[in-house]
Amino acid sequence: MIGIVLAAFVVAVFLWAIEARKRKSHPVPPGYQSDIELPFEQEFELYHNAFSLCSMKSRLCMAELQIPYKSHHVDLVETGFYENIRPGFLRVNRAGTVPVLVHEGHPIYESHEQIRYAANFASPGVASLVPEDPALRAEMESWIDVSSLTEDPIGNMDKTAGNAVPGQTLPLFCTMVEEIPLSRFLEGWLFHFDKLRPFLFTLLKLRGIDRMHTIPPMVKALEGSRAQLLRFLSDLEAQLAKSGGPWLLGEQYTLADVSWLVIFERIRQVEAESVFLSETERPLTIAYWARLRERPAYSEAILGYPHPIVLSGGRRIAEAKAANPNVRKLLEG
Length: 333
What we know:
By secondary structure, this protein is mainly alpha-helical. 56% of the residues lie in helices and 6% in strands. It is built from 15 helices and five strands. Strands 1-5-4-2-3 form a five-stranded mixed beta sheet, with helices on one face. Strand 2, helix 2 and strand 3 form a beta-alpha-beta unit. The termini are far apart.
């Protein structure tokens, strides 16, 4: 009997090693990859996820520029499956991250580089998303940078607003994984390049939103990200006052506005608009967010990609805050 068990174990390890080799991942440089050629059916193709903040940014930019593209939805575990760490997708991006914009077979990695690249291919008659004035262009670039995700966002949430957002996403992760079987996380434990992620999702699944306040690292991340995001939004309010609106740099809607819209969208998804959008402290920001939502591209690229797990997760956050004072205090301060 022991021999059979040992043999089964050896076979299992052998099979895991073969599969792990197929799923080997590594970092990739940002931007256009001239040395990589992928199969393609359309001039532009986009590999993206309905929930991913960066995917929303790239979809929004493509919609604003009215660039047609072939859509490839890639599931992450929080939307149901670990499709991003399977061999099929790893052939598109060895880093296992979304989105990936592909132009005539060449991938462009990282959403902030994708929107800069796509801005050169606006459909005829579409207004440019890049200012002609060099000073305004430099200002736009700085606002793109401050809204973007960098490496280790939780550890560097004071560096950019994009890094501050993931801490606020934790409650939504918690309610989304309620609908995902615990067994699905095993694939992450076996093959994900960052073991912190399957650990995080397993912990959130086991503890639930009603007990998040009992996990000190979660409390620290939420409180820290809230403080930093409020600081960045105060800077945004000052910029809107300086530019005179209606957009971040003034009269022209630019890539900076594309980058910031998705931050507001995440705030909306996690039921936190009342926390971050105070009528007394940020009236210009509230009006700005309203104008962003009125753009056709918002309906097309954001509302046009609903995901049932995301929608139910938002409802669960609202229910948990209403029913549990500890949850409300944790999420609203």
